[in-house]
Every structure is written in C-alpha cells, then in structure tokens.
Amino acid sequence: MIKPSEVTVIIPHLGADEQQEYAIDQCLYSLKETVPNIEIIVVGNGLNKCRHKDGAKIKISEQGQCKAVNAAVATTNTPWIFVTNDDMQYAPGWWEKFTKKVGAPSLGSTS
Predict the structure, then answer these.
(1) How far apart are CA 81 and CA 63, in angstroms?
(2) Is 103 exposed, middle or buried (0-12, 13-18, 19+ CB in 10 A)?
(3) What is the SS3 assignment for 81?
(4) Three-class SS of residue 37?
(5) How many CB atoms lie within 10 A of CB 106?
(6) Lowest CB count within 10 Å: 42, 59, 82, 109, which one?
(7) What confidence tens digit (pLDDT) does each residue in 16-64 have?
C-alpha cells in the first residue's frame, strides 16, 4: 500500500474568479480532511492572482496545465505524483480505495 508520505499532490489553479477560488478551497479542505499528512503543491497557472487562503506554492507566468504540472514535478522528491483538478472534492475513504487498487498486482502479473 502506498503511504501518504510517498505522494505529492499537484493542483494547477487558474484562479480567475471567485467560483474557482471557492472550488480550490473545497478541494484542499477535502484532501486535508481525508489524507492529512500528504504533501500538496498548488501551482498558480498563468498571470491571474491566486486569492485562496493557502496561496500558490509555485507560480508560472504562462498559462498551461502541462507547464504548471511540469514546474511542480520538478520540485518534488516523492516516488509518486498525483495530479488533480482544482475543482475535485474527495470523499472519506477515497485514499484507501485508490492505494489498494494501485498497490495490487496487475491481472497479467505472475507474482
């Protein structure tokens, strides 16, 4: 099973309006409630000012989800990276179900 300490969550965030700020606040809240010890990197994606309460850990001037994710990946040192949208909300138990599936041997595996 994958441990939260082995994972960095990357969230590209445009932050163009109040709805997007509300969405990322809910996303961060749900992640922190369900997996409290996981590292989270929010990437300010483009020139918009990220106004959410935790702020962006990384900011890039050119808008682009791939550019934002790549900038964040370059700063990580965990063996696993989990990229999510800024409007996702995570229900209790999602982490256990996800890591159980990821940690299981594949169907074609001989082990």
Answers:
(1) 21
(2) exposed
(3) strand
(4) coil
(5) 7
(6) 109
(7) 788 888 899 999 999 999 999 899 999 887 766 655 555 557 777 777 8
